[in-house]
Amino acid sequence: MDVKQLKYFIEVTKSGSFTRAANQLYITQPAISRIIKSLEDELGVPLFVRSRKHLTLTEAGKVFYNHAQRMEEQYHALLNDMAQLVTLQKGHLRIGLPSIINSFFFSQFLSAFHREYPEITFQLVEDGSKRIEEKVANDELDFGVVVLPTQHHVFDNYSFVKEKLKIIVPSSHRLAERREIELNELRDEAFIMFNKDFALRDNIIQACSESGFKPKIISETSQLDFIEEMVASKLGITLLPESTSMELTSDVIAIHVANPSIDWDLALIWKNGVRHSHVMQEFIRFAKEKLLQK
Question: Partner of 7 at 20 to 30 A CA spacing, among 66, 157, 220, 275?
Answer without folding.
Answer: 275
